[in-house]
């Protein structure tokens, strides 16, 4: 079931304003480049980083599909709507919506550049891992699942790309705004949970996405070129005073 947000004072108000702002101002996500801008081949190796997912007929996988049925049976219309929105918006806007309209990439070009480059990196890392593991989506083995979107490639369930993106973006944003780290990280967790509410991933998939996203950011933080972009974004956001 859904993991509750940390009891921070700004959570409820900013989340409500943020979701509305994200819906009101849609913008296409940048298309990933063919190669990493910061990392060398071998910096991220899914084969040595992530354990293999359970097989399709393993008890853990059967129980995972059972969990998705229980989540679908208990979800509210509001939570399903949020999950569908999270399915469609796979970039920093979904994590930064906790700040509402104050966080606008149009206002912050250095921040926009940082997160566009990060989005390219997490997309490449997730695609590499998905191609290695080739795990089938849960709805392929259980057509009774009520899913948000069944157009996904059926053999790219592990790790979750959305979870990888969400946790990577949250790690970087929390670094930029440490005073709001808990509400940012809580949003990343809730964003990843949306994949379960949509019925398109197992919990192991989003857990693997959390590992991959966080390791990716650790690797990037060691690269001077990424650090330069990070500090340019920090200066921009600090000057704007957008975070309580």
Give short descriptive properties of this protein.
244 residues; disordered N terminus; 0% strand; Vanadium-containing Chloroperoxidase, domain 1; 11 helices; mainly alpha
Describe the structure.
The chain is mainly α and 244 residues long. The protein has helices at 11-24, 46-49, 59-74, 77-88, 92-96, 109-133, 138-141, 161-176, 181-197, 203-221, 224-240. It starts with 10 loop residues before the first helix and ends with a helix. The chain has a single domain (55-240), classed as Up-down Bundle (Vanadium-containing Chloroperoxidase, domain 1). Helix 6 runs antiparallel to helix 8 (161-176), helix 8 runs antiparallel to helix 9 (181-197) and helix 8 (161-176) packs across helix 10 (203-221). The radius of gyration is 17 Å and the shape is globular. It is built from 11 helices and no strands.
- Alpha-carbon distance between the two ends: 30 Å
- What is the tally of helical segments? 11
What is the domain tally? 1
Largest sheet: none
CATH topology name, in short, is: Vanadium-containing Chloroperoxidase, domain 1
Look at the helices and sheets and give the structural class.
mainly alpha
Rg of Cα set: 17 Å
CATH architecture classification:
Up-down Bundle
Could you name the CATH homologous superfamily? Phosphatidic acid phosphatase type 2/haloperoxidase
